[in-house]
Design goal:
The chain is α/β, with parallel strands linked by helices. It has helices spanning 18-31, 38-42, 49-59, 67-84, 92-101, 114-124, 147-156, 170-178, 208-215, and strands spanning 5-8, 105-109, 132-134, 163-167, 182-186, 200-202. The protein is built from 9 helices and 6 strands. The protein is globular.
Length: 216
């Protein structure tokens, strides 16, 4: 069956946000009087914000720290930075245009907060192209748990084999495949490797014809 819907991850697929998250964490830790390196803050891209803060507190031997409060502070900084300077990947706008012209339904399935997604999509004029966003606050367990993709499939009302997910991480790909979706790994600046497994791999979204051929 031809693809009837495409579900995009947000961080690292739609939007180039790693530096924004690093900057937001460094500013947040700066309020505490701490200095954390880019490498440490970049680790937050692989885990939930709460888990990341808890790890930092544990490493610094701080018991009873206000994890929720510091996560909320970092999130507000992130939202402001994304709204002020949204960065979508090259080729994305043309890909979205081609998919919507072909009447392919689109959604976002992400482990980040809804406000981050809405800030970027609104600022770049792409918000109307997507039917829905499944975000961190919509699920009880984030990727690699399949809950988010199963919720997205319920919203679409389509069988899993009619839907393609585009992801940039091993956890995201695992979440999509466990839900029965065909998954495409996009590297952008990251080469194909163990993280992409046996998923179809595209180096970027720049060659729109190539990406659409892989979507099917």
């Amino acid at each position: 069956m031809p693809t009837r819907a495409v579900l995009f991850d947000f961080d690292g697929v739609l939007a180039d946000t790693e530096n924004v998250h690093v900057a937001a964490w460094q500013r947040t830790f700066g309020v505490m009087g701490w200095i954390e390196t880019d490498e440490v803050c970049a680790q937050a891209a692989e885990v939930d914000d709460r888990a990341f803060v808890a790890q930092v507190f544990e490493r610094r031997k701080i018991a009873g720290g206000n994890v929720e409060g510091w996560v909320a502070r970092k999130q507000e900084l992130t939202r402001q930075l994304l709204a002020d300077s949204p960065r979508i990947y090259p080729g994305l706008a043309r890909l979205i245009e081609r998919l919507t012209t072909a009447q392919i339904r689109l959604g976002v399935v992400t482990t980040t907060w809804r406000s981050n997604v809405e800030a970027v999509l609104t600022a770049t004029g792409l918000v109307g192209a997507f039917e829905f966003v499944v975000a961190k606050e919509d699920v009880t367990a984030t990727k690699p748990d399949p809950e988010a993709y199963r919720l997205a499939l319920a919203k679409l009302g389509l069988p899993a084999n009619d839907v393609v997910a585009i992801e940039d991480s091993q956890t995201g790909l695992e979440s999509a495949r466990t839900s029965g979706l065909r998954a495409i790994a996009v590297g952008h600046r990251r080469p194909e490797g163990d993280w992409s497994g046996d998923s179809t791999f595209v180096g970027s979204l720049v060659d729109v014809d190539h990406v659409i051929a892989r979507i099917g």
